[in-house]
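User: Teach me something about this protein's shape.
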Amino acid sequence: MLLGGLAVVLLVGGLWWAKYGPYSGKVPAVLGSHDLGDSIVTGGGEAAPAVSLAAGWDFTVAYTAAIWKALVVGLVLAAAVQVLLPATWLRRVLGSSDAGTARGGLRGDWPRCPR
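Assistant: First, the predicted structure itself:
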């Protein structure tokens, strides 16, 4: 029970750090200016750059800079669930393979196609 609580604390703290905290400062500025800022694709320009390896690399760098906190939180949370929550408990909570769509989605099952 305590380890599950620790996982929940990691989830809530990580979401605040990666998502809600940064936006709590940005939302009032956007509401006041009605401007979201520069696009991650076009930067300050009017149109997207021509397709090229350099443009693809620039986008990859800009996108990674924008989402790195969420990536770190996702990896830490996945590791915490794997380490802190016993596999037998997860199997019991998520149920058998025919337990339903929501449980199957949480388990990561692919939808079964009729034969």
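Now, about its shape. The chain has four helices and no strands. The helical segments are 2-33, 53-84, 87-94, 101-107. If you'd like, I can walk through any region in more detail.
User: That's plenty for now, thanks!
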